Amino acid sequence: MAGQNPVALLNDKIDKSNVKRFIGNAQFDYKIHGLEDLRLNLNLGIDNSHSDGTVDVAPDTEQSMHSTNQQANNHASGYHTNYSQIRDDQTLEAYADYSHDWNGHFLDVMAGYSWAHYYNETFNEQYKADGTPATDASYYLSKPYTFKTEYYLVSFFGRINYSYDNRYLLTATVRRDGTSRFANNKWGLFPSVAASWNIKNEAFMQDAEAMSALKLRLSWGETGQQDLNAGNYPSLPTYYVNKDQCAYPFGTSFIMPITAKGYNADLKWETTRTINIGLDLGFFDNRLTAGFDVYQRKTFDLLNYTPVAALSNLTNYLNANIGDLENKGFEIDINAVPIQSENWYWQLGVNASYNKVKITRLTADDDRADYYGVETGGISGGTGNTVQIHQKGQAPNSFFVYQQVYDTNGKPIEGVYVDRNNDGKIDTNDKYCFGKAAPDWTFGFNTQLQYKQWTLALSAHANVGNYVYNNVMSNGDLLTDLSTNNFVNNRYHTAEQHNQKAAAQYWSDMYVTDASFLKLDNITLGRDFRFGAKTPMTLNAFITVQNVACLTGYEGIDPEIFSGIDNNMYPRPRTYSVGVKFNF
Questions:
Q1: CA 570 distance to own-chain centroid
Q2: Cβ distance 83 to 123 under 8 Å?
Q3: Per-residue pLDDT tens over the stretch 11-25
Q4: pTM for the full predicted model
């Protein structure tokens, strides 16, 4: 079915709403009289909003037919909707902090408690456009319905900082976090420790005048997260009230059934443990600085939305702690001021990072011959088709595809793939992991050049080693769909080259392509105008261009797709801005 007319979507629908919102914050900080090294802090916050509105869709319009499912009768009654929402977020944080300095020994101790409550309530009801209620179960119109949801986060935390002579620094922290989202495993304990050695302040470094900074850092710590795409009750048994279309007749009335939803009572915190070694360098009064970090990051009990075996739960997909993940890599950050004079100033910065990620465990059956992993990465074209997988030993969201066979002219042979396990047939056993969504390398660049009152600044970034599945191409290559009902359909420009005539080749690795890129993100040119003898004032006029250029070999609209699947994304616009800032 074609999309609805965008002009009709605007003209045939009236949607009005009113929103009242209050955001408040209060902070109290008190030092104990006679013990000024101890202070008490209390921070309170609230974000409360009330909204209500109406939606009216006129009878016999395209939207009305889509909404009331009356296309077969060539008639639609239209509808009127009343809706409202209440959001109430409340936070509290209280801590005590004690700090003291004894002849070069500095100690800071802090302990605290935080509490947060997030509440959301929505109301919705629909009528026919003439104001009569929906009594026919064939209508999509809904009876008055209220939905409420909430969850709590609670934390106890503490920290100790110790330093001696600004040379040796030690920090230790611990958090005990609790969430209402996990029924049987509400609490998680997350400690960390970090130490640094300010080598530049040692006596043997005092004669190294060219070096202005030298610090060695080492840290270990754990963090937890409980966010997941499953509402606020993924570990509790809940029920779903079905819509009117699911009602069934019982005597002279309709019975509305309820459906039990799937849940996992054993959900627990996802934990990430990180070890980091870093080195900070500075030269020539910090006109040249550099930072280098090497890290290993392991994530345990990954929270993921994964398929479950038939009849093992009340749903075919469920949230679960399904495995472990490991990241290894390093980061480099260099900043320099090559020119600094009365009229000229030039600053530039570059950074690069390399990250290798792989799944180290999924389930207890990882090594089973017929277990491939958790398939993910849904694509358009067919129902339930996926082209990505979470598999032990591979990166998350690796592409799980067949290896395409090509003829002597380099053209793909339709429906012919490599028999990778040499069993004489092509099936799931012949799929392999080829490429991944995440890049191996990321780079960043920024620079600023000033001459008197003129300033030119630009920034860029690049990814190397990221792959994208071109779903637009895989959908647009099928030549049998070239003409439908005497209409000529759009085809992708590679349709002739790929020569698909019988069936789509969604799982061919020819649609998985290297999407490395270099993007020039921003260019700004500005000028300052200074005036006023007694009261100095500055006027800055500037012009900015964003999303300037992209260099890539990828054939789609944009290679920067975090999911790794290009499914007709909306292009990022190039924007031009002209502005004036006045300071006085």
A1: 17
A2: yes
A3: 888 889 999 999 999
A4: 0.82
